[in-house]
Amino acid sequence: MTMKLSTDPSAATLLPIAKKEGISTVWDRHRAMQPQCGFGQLGVCCRICWKGPCRIDPFGDGPQRGICGADADTIVARNVIRMIAAGAAGHSEHGRHVALALQGVAEGRLPAYQIRDEAKLRAVAAKLGICTEGEDIPAIAAAVAKATLEDFQNQDHDAPCNWVEASLTKKRLERLQALHVVPHNIDAVITQIMGRTLVGCDADPVNLILGGIKGALADFDGMCLATELSDVLFGTPSPVVTAANLGVIKPDAVNIAVHGHNPLLSEVVCEVAGQMDEEARKAGAKDGINIVGICCTGNEVMVRHGIPLAANYLSQELALVTGAVDAMVVDVQCIMPSVSEIGACFHTAVITTMAENKIPGATHVEFREETALENARRIVATAIEAYKRRDPRRVNIPDFKQTAIVGFGVESVVGALATLNAEDPLQPLIENIANGNIRGIALFAGCNSTQVAQDSSFVTMAKKLAANNVLMLATGCGAGAFAKHGFMTQEATMEYAGDSLKAVMTAIGTSAGLNGPLPLVLHMGSCVDNSRAVQVAVAVADKLGVDLDQLPLVASAPEAMSEKAVAIGTWSVALGIPTHLGTMPQVTGSAKVTELLTQTAKDLLGGYFLVELDPNLAADKLLEVIEERRKGLGI
């Protein structure tokens, strides 16, 4: 029986066209890989030295130790924490770019950028303990940038990273410090993971996993600072109505897809595209320039500017198969190398922009913050030239798009609650959790994976949780899945939410001026913006005088795939949040590591991994966790 590839109707339209054109997609390449390596799936293969590669026989009949003597527990632990290090490196490097840009703005060196939210800057400064009295905006920005960059530079192993210390409850910070897993320096912690997993080093799986937890918390630190400083520079999200799925591509426009994760580039491309719209019309595009988003760069511009989202991770190639994308502009992370090959099948200019992220066959336009406007103009001009080569006979844009209400940052969530209680905005949320109108809160995050029919697990779980009155938040490609399938609308709330959740969402939405309920799933941003949900949870926990592991709060990555997802899931567990994985993690070759992450973690941290591949059963298990937490609070 052939597994269904995707529940996205756009995929059903375009995959036959790709097959007819002889274009290989991610699903074709996945099929060609079957059967996949069983040793790799269990995490028991080791390639960290050239004596190997080594593998452990999971059935006990063959080798039980690698050539150096490492057993399955050591090999699995080393493999998984190296994934955490890579994920933390990706997110923190994103954050470093933003922090350096803030520093450049403070010093007047980056004319393409400005501080768009001064109130957020002052709030961030206060959060970091920076005195702002009598200081002007550039001075405050410089101080915030300095404190942030200390998280990459601090050499005092006993001093926690500034953003970790500022972003957690006191109880949680103390619990993590007792385990010696609080990072002091993002770069140092990532380096430590790579060093301790070198051949001939740390062989204790427990010690290795604790090092991985510290690396995951470095990832959390990088995500917190990236999100907050992006709000300062580009504006804090507020609710906006937009659209999602490949139907947002326009046949009579120069279509530019911004793809990747770093908003420093996409923000300027959006600005310059507005300035060059008339040039596109002169080239024959009667609808001018149409910017669409893919993956988390798409989520960034979506929540801040209402730019429509064309695709999440697995659909990125299909955007090119429409034959109507004139330029795909990529920065870093989650970009399939295949896009340059598929772009070459059409007229599409695939443009790489970062020195550390080039793709053979793509056009490279080096992006620098100092020359951002010049770089963006060249990119947009390249897209206009590509449009002139477009073959209208090969254009196939699926007629599928959904309305999406997005942009629910912490400030807008608290602002909406403040319309019910201006003096104590969190009180309505806490009251409705306490009385059971809202049974709990679920954060959906993570990727798409070819191990699962695209988007299906997100949709299945959301329907069941909503019916059981669980408030849902989403980020990253999970948010993209919900947006594409119409779950970020008021109509979805009316259709799927249980009666008490529906009543709460309607009361808040109506009071906030939406003339109806809040959307069923609240879009909080890109994958680095998972920290927004933690901010809300920390505020609630502080108000109740409890720690995060006592709240009826769960997380789910039902289609987890990336090393970044491993890092995110691990810090979620470290913060005390039960975290569901809907794809099998590559750790099951070690009973000890599996036990550490799913059972021992519960005692040490309060959070733990819950692995369930069936989305219906996964929703049931998360509901059980929520009820267990409610009983613990006596509600």
Structure description:
With 635 residues, this protein is of the alpha/beta class. Helix content is 50%, strand content 11%. Strands 6-5-4-7-8-9 form a 6-stranded parallel β-sheet, with helices on both faces. The model has no long low-confidence stretch (mean pLDDT 97).
Which term fits the overall shape? globular
**CA(first)-CA(last) distance:** 46 Å
Residue stretches low in confidence (pLDDT < 50, at least 5 long) are: none
Characterize the largest beta sheet: strand count, sense, and whether it forms a barrel.
Answer: 6 strands, parallel
Tally of strands: 16
User: What proportion of the residues form beta strands (DSSP E)?
Assistant: 5-15%
Q: How many helical elements?
A: 26
- Strands side by side in the biggest sheet: 6-5-4-7-8-9
SS class:
alpha/beta
**Portion of residues within helices:** 40-55%
Task: Provide mean pLDDT, rounded.
Answer: 97
Please state the CA-atom Rg, rounded to the nearest Å.
Answer: 24 Å
Main attributes?
635 residues, 6-stranded parallel beta sheet, 16 strands, 50% helix, 11% strand
Summarize it.
The chain is α/β, with parallel strands linked by helices and 635 residues long.
List the helices and strands and how they pair.
Blueprint: H1 9-21, H2 26-32, H3 38-42, E1 45-46, E2 54-55, H4 72-106, H5 118-127, H6 137-149, H7 162-167, H8 170-178, H9 186-196, H10 205-234, E3 240-244, E4 254-260, H11 263-275, H12 277-282, E5 289-294, H13 295-305, E6 309-311, H14 316-321, E7 325-330, H15 338-344, E8 349-352, E9 363-364, H16 372-387, E10 402-406, H17 410-418, H18 426-434, E11 440-444, H19 456-467, E12 470-475, H20 476-484, H21 490-496, H22 499-511, E13 521-525, H23 530-544, E14 553-557, H24 563-574, E15 579-581, H25 591-605, E16 609-611, H26 615-633
Parallel strand pairs: 4-5, 4-7, 5-6, 7-8, 8-9, 11-12, 11-14, 12-13, 14-15, 15-16
Antiparallel strand pairs: 1-2, 3-10
